[in-house]
Write a structure and sequence with these properties.
This protein starts with 7 loop residues before the first strand and ends in a 6-residue tail after the last helix. The protein has 2 domains: 94 residues, Beta Barrel (Elongation Factor Tu (Ef-tu), domain 3), CATH 2.40.30; 134 residues, Rossmann fold. It is globular and about 50 Å long. It is 22% helix and 30% strand. The protein is an alpha/beta fold. A 7-stranded mixed sheet has the order 10-9-8-7-11-12-15, with helices on both faces. Helix 6 packs parallel to helix 7. The protein binds flavin-adenine dinucleotide and FE2/S2 (inorganic) cluster. Flavin-adenine dinucleotide (FAD) binds next to strand 4, strand 5 and helix 2. FE2/S2 (inorganic) cluster binds next to loops.
């Protein structure tokens, strides 16, 4: 049996600076032992603990899609001890990945349905994983309409800009990219906060339409009433929580909300489930 506390050794293969403030970087890792890639078999929506020797571990959503083989990718915001240390590392450096951890977006439920992805800021990471997964030629037919509403403060703060441009050009995904504001005369997408763009662009709620919402608390607070007005039932609104975590496997008790362990029972919950939980998140 695998020891759940033991990270897989990985090497940094590539580092991509995502945002103009350089605080968000994507890290592509390759497994030092090729058979570990098989053991790290994941679904879009899961996370892993990234461990930097001598510094600690941090939970980070998996930004690559299970359909992307040969590497696993994470996008990390530089906020404190471990994330800053990671930002100072370079291609070729060795570290550890423990996981995959937590549950995932309910792909079996979403098959045959319309999927509306609503994201803001750097919480777009597991949403990128989901979009790449759904757009994969082997999967696209499994889903009906796909809408993506994604916002950042400015154009330079958007993640995955080359991919956003490529998705914009496709006719099998409806992209609604937005920024809070910009003085760029060449900006050709939306200007406005995510809840406003959701109100304007999201399809109405129905038995066949699910929304996946990830973003900062303020975005979620103002998006929820918009989805209510659009008649999304709370069991059709799916969210991913970011609680403080330690073990990531439901043992230490650091992340629980009532009887739910966010690391093990989540991080993905429907709004209907969250409504039943104490408001500690
Ligand atoms: C399931 C899950 C998925 C996540 N996915 C991502 C991701 O894809 N990309 C990403 O950049 N970050 C993600 N995070 C947040 C990330 O785990 C924290 O930013 C990280 O642990 C900070 O560690 P640090 O050592 O750099 O900072 P620390 O030195 O521990 O703290 C620095 C600052 O960050 C705050 N902080 C620390 N941990 C958290 C946390 N879990 N939530 C909110 N604030 C925190 C502290 O209060 C402090 O203000 C995720 C968290 C969870 C639980
Ligand atoms: S992080 Fe230890 S129980 Fe969730």
């Amino acid at each position: 049996m695998l020891n759940p506390y033991l990270p897989f050794p990985v090497a940094i293969d590539e580092i991509i600076t995502e945002t103009e403030d350089k605080n968000l970087k994507s890290f592509k890792f390759v497994f030092l032992n090729p058979e570990d890639e098989e053991k790290f078999s994941y679904r879009a929506g899961q996370f892993a603990e990234l461990s930097v020797t001598g510094k600690g571990e941090i939970p980070i959503g998996i930004a690559s899609s299970p359909t992307e083989k040969g590497y696993v990718m994470f996008t990390v915001n530089k906020v404190g001890l471990v994330s800053s240390c990671l930002h100072s590392m370079k291609a070729g450096d060795i570290m550890g990945i423990r996981g995959p951890l937590g549950n995932w977006y309910p792909w079996d439920v979403l098959e045959g349905k319309n999927v509306v992805i609503i994201g803001g800021g750097f919480a777009f990471t597991t949403l990128r994983s989901s979009i790449v997964y759904m757009l994969d030629p082997a999967n696209r037919k499994k889903f009906n309409d796909i809408h993506v509403i994604y916002g950042a403060r400015t154009p330079g703060m958007l993640l995955y800009r080359e991919e956003l441009t490529a998705w914009e050009k496709r006719d099998d995904i409806h992209m609604h990219i937005t920024v809070d504001g910009t003085d760029d005369p060449d900006w050709k997408y939306n200007v406005g906060f995510v809840p406003t763009i959701t109100e304007q662009k999201a399809p109405p709620g129905s038995a066949d339409t699910y929304a996946i919402v990830c973003g900062p608390p303020i975005m979620i607070k103002f998006t929820q009433p918009v989805l209510d007005n659009l008649n999304y039932s709370h069991d059709h609104i799916i969210m991913s929580l970011e609680m403080r975590m330690k073990c990531g496997i439901g043992i230490c008790g650091r992340c629980n909300i009532g009887k739910e362990y966010v690391c093990k029972d989540g991080p993905v919950f429907t709004l209907a489930q969250l409504n039943e939980m104490p408001r500690e998140y």
